[in-house]
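User: Show me a protein chain along with its predicted structure.
Assistant: Here is one chain, sequence first, then structure tokens.
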Amino acid sequence: QDGKADFTRTLDGPMFDRWAIHLTKGEKKYPDVTPGVPNWTLAAGEEELIRFKKSAFRHFRQWFRGDIDEDHAAAVFFNINGYEYVKAKIGK
């Protein structure tokens, strides 16, 4: 196990559960394209990269200010993940 990533560490703390809840809520608003294919995974270009980045920053500001109208920390996770997903997809 030396030098191997321990993915179970992502389960420590509250964010794994909160991120899952955020994704589940999003699925209701933006249904899967086909069963098991999340809508956001269709993002594939520079425009989506910019949108994810701006949204991550907006939610970070709201989290930093202490806004509690929604789970802004989980939204930051979602948008950073989306950005990195698209970045890898387009080979940046």
